[in-house]
Amino acid sequence: RGKVRIPMKLRVGFSKTNSLISKTIRWVIGAPFSHTYIRFYDEFLGLHFVAHADWPGVMIMQADKFDKENKVLEEFEFDCPELKQSLTSNLRFLGSRYDYLSILGWAWTIALRRAARIIAKNPLDDPKSLICVDFCIRVLNDAGLTSIPVGSINPKGLVNKLRDNYETMCGQRFVFERTE
Predict the structure, then answer these.
(1) pLDDT value at residue 100
(2) CA distances from 71 to 14, 22, 74, 85, 90 (A)
(3) Which residue, 149, 148, 38, 159, is CA-closest to 91?
(4) What are the pLDDT digits (tens) for 6-56?
């Protein structure tokens, strides 16, 4: 018997807080948000959750708690069977450390791009640890929705790719606060 492929709705979101690090990241990348995450619904528990890479590492928390601690600005919802397996597979990163050096690498890369107007890859990208955008990219890539190299873009780059392509990816866009 063949496997039944059950669609899974999943949202890739963009948020901010009022913390100094959030404000600094927003200033460095030139965007109104500083964080990316995956929002999903667990049928067994009947609850929405957020999976994301944050300062303690990759984690899952109840969406209600996340929404109280973060200002959600924009989300893109995708509904395809491959997302369930992709998210499940990428949960192997739970507890993986946060890639603090990658944040410094992004600051250097963006400064270099601005100063010299050249394209540069983050020199401090570590495949054993993640930042928020890399976790989201892995989930989207493994589901076949994107083919973005991990470590190649920051949250602003990801939101621009999703804004440009969400309709061809059979997605929907939800804007909670105007960001463009």
Answers:
(1) 52
(2) 9, 11, 9, 28, 25
(3) 38
(4) 557 899 999 999 999 899 889 888 999 999 999 999 988 999 999 998 877
**Whole-model pTM?**
0.81
Q: Quote the mean pLDDT of the chain.
A: 82
Between CA 172 and CA 108 the distance in angstroms is 33
Could you give the CA distance from residue 135 to residue 76 in angstroms, rounded to a whole number?
15
Distance, CA of 87 to CA of 41 (rounded, Å): 12
Q: What pLDDT score does 5 carry?
A: 54
Task: List, for residues 111-160, the tens digit of each pLDDT value.
Answer: 555 555 444 444 444 445 678 899 999 999 999 999 998 888 889 999 99
Q: Which amino acid is at 143?
A: A
Residues 52/34, Cβ–Cβ less than 8 Å:
no
Residue 176 backbone phi and psi in degrees, to 5 = -100, -25
Q: Diameter of the chain by CA atoms?
A: 59
**Model confidence at 104, in pLDDT bands (50, 70, 90)?**
low
What is residue 2's DSSP assignment?
Answer: P
Burial class of residue 41 in the structure, from the number of CB atoms within 10 Å of its CB (0-12 exposed, 13-18 middle, 19+ buried):
middle
